[in-house]
Amino acid sequence: MPGTDVPRPGSPAGARRRSPRRVRTAAALFAAALLSLGTVDGAAAEVPNGAPDPCRHGDRIAVPGAEFQTHACLPDMTTAALAGTRYTDSADWSSLTARGTRNPSGVAGLQIDGYFPDTSRLNTTHGWDHDAQFVIRLPERWNGGLVVTGAPGLRKQYSLDPLISDWVIDRGYAFASTDKGNSGPDFYTDGVRPGDAVAEWNDRTTELTRAARTVVKQAYGRAPRRTYMTGISNGGYLTRWQLENHPGLYDAGLDWEGALWTPDGPNLFTYLPTGVAHSLGRASDQDMLDAGFTAGTEFLWPYHEQVYYGLTQKVYRAEFDPAYDPSCPGPTAGTTVTEILAPCASDAAYDYASRPDSVRRAVQRVSLTGKIGKPMITVQGDLDALLPVATDSEVYTKMIADRHRGRLHRSYSVQGGTHVDGLYDSHPDRLRPVLPCYRAAFEVLTDWVERREAPPASGTVPRPATGDLVNTCSLR
Fold first, then answer.
1. FRET label pair with 245: which of 102, 133, 228, 259, CA 20 to 30 Å apart?
2. Are 345 and 377 in contact (CB under 8 A)?
3. Nearest partner of 297 among 308, 287, 289, judged by Cα
4. Which of 103, 153, 159 is nearest to 134 (CA)?
5. Do 391 and 288 meet the contact criterion of CB atoms below 8 Å apart?
6. How many CB atoms lie within 10 A of CB 280?
7. H/E/C letters for each residue in the chain?
8. With 80 as the cut, is the pLDDT of residue 38 above it?
9. In whole angstroms, what is the distance from residue 204 CA to residue 170 CA?
10. What confidence tier does 51 reach under pLDDT thresholds 50, 70, 90?
11. What is the pLDDT at residue 52?
């Protein structure tokens, strides 16, 4: 999500603008105290297709542009084996999956961790205190493909390990993920100009994609046959932006509830202030619906008011419009969880339309246009209470059509899906996890690209009355 999927954190090399406000921020409250990575021994073996085992070449693999890297040959790179070790961060993926989600295990290969040159220090993972961290996983049994993603919300590079990494490396894909160059509730302190921190997200994703493609060639002896961009929430936004701005790097993309930025709206600032006002008793339920929140999500609003609306609005407003209320959030979003989640009272009256043109220009720098250059599938729950479908996926689908790119796009609305699958555990009678439909969409996407099988028409994926909602979904 654009703000935070739960309250915890997560410039290109030679950056043109990095002179961050150096403070020891609340991000440290949420960082994992992990040991520095090392190397463990693993047996080398040839895969059936004749490609070399990447573990044989670990010492010779150099991530282009990286300031630091380390590698380990692991008998299992999935979260089943890595949870509690230095090779992932369980806190970073908390709440993103529903209980009972089945993930594969037993995928051997080479993991590379490191960071690109950067001057900000919000990501404290591994004790590195260095942003622009990444993880690359190279399975022993490679299928010729590469999947790239960026962290959702304010999380870091390991946040998608159980949602995406486990599943794709089991299918033979190489996997690469970035922390986007800044993370945590104080991400807005990175940069000089309004919008710098978010603009860096796109640069870092491009940087990692190019580097990972080279790493794959070093490890397996040939470049990836297919490269897919994907992500959830902010990662979905990254997917959209990459396919609009660097389509030549990818074969296709899968956007899971990506955040929508447009200079004239809709964007977060056209509806989130109403969520803040509602949480403070200054707006009615009808005001919420009029702002774009989806009817039927009312039962989710109290949770979002406690965790999402206030924090998301204040830190993104501080990123794009710091002059509106310089005293809140100030140089840090807070030093306790209560402070971090608390809204700025002034945001209840925030009116994006009346703000100076400079705010719109800052948003314009990171905005989407709909001009995708490669096939893309969008999936989003119709009960998303943070990024409502009426102000997000439905709008972006129309933007793509207006750019005459509709033939490259499919959009599936998952009935009963919401922004974070972990909420299913509290409302199993009303919600359904989106993850199984995301995985089904990935298979549809690869069939579309690699087998020229036309995907189903855009539409609603109905919520079955019976069956295993946590692990099954069909788009066909």
1. 133
2. no
3. 289
4. 159
5. no
6. 15
7. CCCCCCCCCCCCCCCCCCCCCCCCCHHHHHCCCCCCCCCCCCCCCCCCCCCCCHHHHHHHCCCCCCCEEEEEEECCCCHHHHCCCCCCCHHHHCCCCCCCCCCCCCCCEEEEEEECCCCCCCCCHHHCCCCCEEEEEEECCCCCEEEEEECCCCCCCCCCHHHHHHHHHHCCCEEEEECCCCCCCCHHHCCCCCCHHHHHHHHHHHHHHHHHHHHHHHHHCCCCCEEEEEEECHHHHHHHHHHHHCHHHCCEEEEECCCCCCCCCCCHHHHHHHHHHHHCCCCCHHHHHHHCCCCCCHHHHHHHHHHCHHHHHHHHHHHHCCCCCCCCCCCCCCCCHHHHHCCCHHHHHCCHHHCCHHHHHHHHCCCCCCCCCCCEEEEEECCCCCCCHHHCHHHHHHHHHHCCCHHHEEEEEECCCCCCHHHHHCCCCCCCCCHHHHHHHHHHHHHHHHCCCCCCCCEEECCCCCCCCCCCCCCC
8. no
9. 26
10. low
11. 67
Token pair for 175: 């996997």
AA letter at 413 = S
Q: Residue 57 has what pLDDT?
A: 81
Sheet holding 109-115, edge to edge: 68-74, 109-115, 133-139, 174-178, 145-150, 226-232, 252-256, 376-381, 409-414, 459-461
Which of 276, 258, 197 is CA-nearest to residue 434?
A: 258
Comparison of pLDDT for 266 and 2, the residue scoring more = 266
- Does position 56 have pLDDT exceeding 70, yes or no? yes
pLDDT at res. 180: 98
Amino acid at 425: D
Q: Find the range with the poorest average confidence among 41-50, 235-244, 247-256.
A: 41-50
Which amino acid is located at 185 in the chain?
Answer: P
Spatial neighbors of 6 by CB under 8 A, at least 6 apart, are 94, 95, 153, 307, 420
Q: In the predicted model, is pLDDT for residue 360 greater than 60?
A: yes
Please say if the pLDDT value at position 220 is more than 60. yes
Burial class (CB in 10 A: 0-12, 13-18, 19+), 1: buried
Arithmetic mean of pLDDT over the chain? 91
**pLDDT at position 396:** 98
Q: Is the pLDDT of residue 30 over 60?
A: no
- How many alpha carbons fall within 13 Å on the CB side of residue 78? 20
Number of residues that this document lists for the chain? 476
Asked whether the CA dihedral 435, 437, 443, 448 is positive or negative, the reply is negative
Q: End-to-end alpha-carbon separation of the chain, Å?
A: 27
Q: pLDDT at residue 450 above 80?
A: yes
* pLDDT, position 157: 98
Question: Rounded CA gap, 134 and 69, in Å?
Answer: 9
